[in-house]
Amino acid sequence: MKKEIAVIGLGRFGGSIVMELSEMDVDVLVIDTDEARVNEYQDYYSEGIIGDSTDEAMLKSIGIDNYDNVIVAIGDNIQASILSTLILKDLGVKKVTTKAQNSYHGRVLEKIGADIVVHPERDMGRRIAHRLVSSSVVEYLEVSTSHSIIEYSANAKLENKRISDLNIREKFGISIIAINRDNDIIVSPDPQISILGGDILILIGSDQQLNHFEKVMERLK
């Protein structure tokens, strides 16, 4: 059975989600007040509605509570974003994912019941910053306000060394939770395993600890 997901707001963020979901063979409902935007993405969704997501009667009439996830991707209208999220939860939607414009907006969304709050602009800025500072950071993923996961390309200083000899946890307070070796994921690697050239280390720790690790590794290059 296909997943059914609704996307409210077809700006750049919402539109990109709709296109990605279409590629994943998901039934997508889109809602936007702008008819031109709804028409622009007509090749990517199963159903499009030109309407206001703060209209509780409209949302109820389309059975919005039957969707597996509703994504509120409204752009600059913070009031509409908050009100839409509140109405969706009141209507019994199982999972509501809402885009936040800033940290204050995010805190309000969490308090009114949003299941997932995303900060696309902030998160993208952090990804870019990490890649600029460290050429070895392949990917960066925030898991909380203070902890993250990074994919780190093993440099020459790490190659052919056993995990236990590196003492990464003792020195930096971070953990190697997996190794991507030629697209084969080694989960919870044995401390006696040696790191090879081309390995991608998947590390978890506080942002402060990870930043310290990246800076030290850059200096050792």
TrEMBL record:
It comes from the Bacteria. One of its GO terms (molecular function) is monoatomic cation transmembrane transporter activity. Pfam families: TrkA_C, TrkA_N. One of its GO terms (biological process) is potassium ion transport. InterPro entries: NAD(P)-bd_dom_sf, RCK_C, RCK_C_sf, RCK_N, Trk_Ktr_HKT_K-transport. SUPFAM superfamilies: NAD(P)-binding Rossmann-fold domains, TrkA C-terminal domain-like. Signal peptide: none annotated. Residues 2-118 form the RCK N-terminal domain. Residues 135-219 form the RCK C-terminal domain. Gene3D superfamilies: NAD(P)-binding Rossmann-like Domain (3.40.50.720), Regulator of K+ conductance, C-terminal domain (3.30.70.1450). This is Trk system potassium uptake protein TrkA. It comes from Jeotgalicoccus halotolerans. The lineage of its organism: Bacteria, Bacillati, Bacillota, Bacilli, Bacillales.
